[in-house]
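Cross-check.
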Amino acid sequence: MIRYRMAVKRNLVAMKKIFCIVLAALMCAVLFTSCSSNEDAVVIFSSMEQNSEDALKAQLKEKFPDIPVRIQHLSTGNNTAKIKAEGENTEADIVLGLETPSMLKIADRFATLDEYTKDQYADPSMITDDRIRPWEVFEGAILVNTEVLKEHGLPEPKTYEDLLNPAYKGMIAMPSPKTSSTAYMFLNSWVKTMGEDGAFDYVDKLQKNIKQFTESGSGPVNMLKQGEIAVGLGIAYLAADQITQGVPLKIIAPETGCPYTSTSFGIVKGKEKDENVKKIFTFLNEDFMKYNVEHITPGKLLKDQQVKLKNYPENLPAADMSTINDLDLKDKLTEKWKY
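Predicted model, tokenized:
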């Protein structure tokens, strides 16, 4: 009996040791896999809209099944601040869809892109720095929910001046230029047509009818979709997508033309020699860019570009946006914004 008990005890000790060894091995394997995938992954800091990011994830998975790619969404402000602060120590390899003025502000954080083609652009003068490339152009417009207008007996606005009508009180939304490049392109356009003092006088009057200054450029479209407002100053292509889904929205070009702005992309300095980074950047530059601007953000960017996004108006009149990339002007105007 004593021998039996001792044998059982020895077996239990042996089994415990084996269990500990197996558990340790499993933990090491998990740890190694995790570290390995983190080290090997191509990391993209994206400030694109969700529909563009979803399409990119799907295409990357199909095109590069053996290259792990991690897309981390960051707002314009957070993306800019993170890259500026971290420099070459950032985990990001590629920055994508960040507004051009912000990219220019941190251009010293990016590698030169001489080895990548730039023949696809309709206007080569858009490339003002060899470390960043234009990614997309998106246009703003006066957007309305026709059912909400009808429900409240509101007229359909045709001009910015129409939006000052007291009947629209609490029925309008626009983003804040402090947090949104979409809002800043509207403000920049108003300064061009009304002068700086005139533009801020206009905003002082407009804010009386504003229900909310949203943080993101997509905010007004989301509120229009929910029927929370009748009018939004927002992104035209997002409205077109909602129209295709059956939401009763309408895109109206302001009398002074549609404001527009661009985003850009680049490779973080120090990451430009990584073969996987080069493969992903080449795919973005030569393939996904074309898909994105034809199916999702149709602002004119490329030669022979076709508008394939349903319900997107062709040939929207363009506002004078000659100062949209003036960094000092942007800092001045956004600092002056008080709402």
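The radius of gyration is 26 Å. The chain has two domains: 41-136+262-310, 138-260+329-336. Passed to J.P. for a second look.
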